[in-house]
Amino acid sequence: MNSLNKSSNTTAPPVGTAFKQPTVLAPALRYSYRNGEIATYDTGKTEKQLLTYLLDTEELKSLHPTGTVLQGTLNYNFVLSDPDGNLYVWRAPKEHPQIIPIIHQDLIGTGFLINGGSYRYRTIREQVNFMTEACRLHLQNVEAITTNAFGTLLPFIQGTPYDNYLRQGGIEATKNVLDNIVTAHKHNIVYGDRWTKNTIIKPDEGIVEIDFDIELRGEIAQEFEMAQLLYHILFFSSQREKMLDFLKSYLQINQTALAGHDFFMVRKFLSNYANYFQDKIVEGIAGGIEQEIAELIKILLCLF
Ligand SMILES: Nc1ncnc2c1ncn2[C@@H]1O[C@H](COP(=O)(O)OP(=O)(O)OP(=O)(O)O)[C@@H](O)[C@H]1O
Ligand SMILES: [Mg+2]
After folding, report:
1. What's the mean pLDDT in 263-292?
2. N or C end of the chain: smaller count of CB under 10 Å?
């Protein structure tokens, strides 16, 4: 039985004072499976009303399932709509994500775990607290509307996942993505798992970080996060030469802001990434960007 079924006819447990207390009437999601994967869902007896909660002190809103479920590797994201057509996401963790040993292997292969880093999965409550704290610091990430033991309600962010933006040749929003990470690191905030698919680019090129499942720990966490992000920017970009020029100029302009990073380690992780993924296919793209990463390492060596 999955976690959302367990939530049938329960009321939400108390949540921190920072959150509006929801009245969850009947989050009775029933999955229908196709080839072992959730394809659609319905709400059984609660056909018309999925969640009713106080959006603010005056307004009571009902959320209806749209039928769309955005599947991640660790979570289901059920897209809901309010009567005005505003979209929301009910994010609920998968019970047995098959990706877990692969994540562990990747963190060894890219050198994080063998250089003093460690990681863990944030609980739902920790993810919500993390979002709140990062928003308090004016970082660019999604903030939870409410939560219970089974999941989190988030606004649906309209836009393009950053990896798709990069595949389509986009470059400019990269400034906003990097600015946000640099600011986060200044505040000792490490998002974890910044591989471009956990960032949404809005139509105005503003950015929103989503997905805070994985916490990276240790003195080298910021360096690893910077390397992970830079690697994936180049990996997914269909304009790698132009992107390298862009990164060069960004790194030059922001040399002072970036000085808190140990670039010896950033370079080491970049090189590990290129080696580890050189013969792997990720999201339909073949590895083998050692040349571009070598260029980037050269740029970093000149600057830091
Ligand atoms: N609040 C949101 N607004 C819009 N889209 C979202 C939102 N949250 C998640 N998505 C989309 O849902 C899909 C699944 O993302 P999700 O981050 O849940 O995957 P995941 O299980 O964490 O896996 P991964 O580890 O691969 O990132 C992605 O396309 C993502 O862009
Ligand atoms: Mg994700």
Report:
1. 97
2. N
